[in-house]
């Protein structure tokens, strides 16, 4: 009998076993390295914003939209082991709230490869280039920062929601490449040219309040738009809105709007505000069956028209305010 075959089997099995062990050790080493980096970065975040509630959010704590689960499930992993080595070995950081931080260098955030939600509003950040590494980011809040160049954000292919209100941004050109955006807040920014937004057909919510914008023709192709805020803008021509038939909320308060004729096509409209405008004819809204709330300016010139509209649409709540009342309400 040839015993050589049997002599080779143990050697082959042993070699395979060594390879498997080596691969497992490599994987364990990578997991340990990533967990340690995540843990150290989470501590850095917490120290940077000691007064923030929930500065770091883990995947098991949050919904897809970044909201905390009302009845938070128990953390993953065995309790005693989790207490021994930490939660960072069992769950990924997906949300960071560093609002108000005085940190200017955000490169450590690259240690959160699964980060989907980031809030750095009212912070000292002035260079967004480190954020270009956050490839999983879907929601970014930069309200009240001094950032002027948003071009690094074009690297964030998954970005869906971007809040830039009250920043000194004048140039919207970089937005042209962010076509996955569904929610964009530009309130209080300084740009006037909306042409970079022309092909953002996925947009569902757009806010341009308190901007010097006057021409909204670039919005005509946003056929998925549901909410549009044009408060306190220079917009007077509403004709680009007539094809935005998915609109449910339209805010024209404080704008230069005068003629609501294009709005008659918005059959899904539920809420419309025309406080502090030159609008005197509400008849384009008569046949909007879903309109439930209308905000209008109180005054002698509108008294009869408001009475007529109320008789025409008794189920629609008409809220009257004079211009000063509306401004006070808005500021509060």
Number of strands: 12
Helix content: 10-25%
Distance between the termini: 96 Å
Round the mean pLDDT to the nearest integer and report it: 90
Structural class: alpha/beta
What order do the helices and strands follow?
Answer: HEHEEEEEEEEEEHEH
- Nearest-angstrom radius of gyration? 27 Å
The amount of beta strand, in percent, is 5-15%
Q: State the helix count.
A: 4
How would a crystallographer describe the biggest sheet?
A: 12 strands, mixed
Identify low-pLDDT runs: none
Shape: elongated
Walk across the major sheet and give the strand order: 1-2-3-4-5-6-7-8-9-10-11-12
List the helices and strands and how they pair.
Blueprint: H1 4-48, E1 56-58, H2 79-85, E2 93-97, E3 117-119, E4 139-141, E5 161-163, E6 183-185, E7 205-207, E8 227-229, E9 249-251, E10 271-273, E11 293-297, H3 303-312, E12 317-321, H4 323-331
How does this model look, in words?
By secondary structure, the protein is α/β, with parallel strands linked by helices. It has four helices and twelve strands, in the order H-E-H-E-E-E-E-E-E-E-E-E-E-H-E-H. It has helices at 4-48, 79-85, 303-312, 323-331, and strands at 56-58, 93-97, 117-119, 139-141, 161-163, 183-185, 205-207, 227-229, 249-251, 271-273, 293-297, 317-321. A twelve-stranded mixed sheet has the order 1-2-3-4-5-6-7-8-9-10-11-12. 33% of the residues are buried.
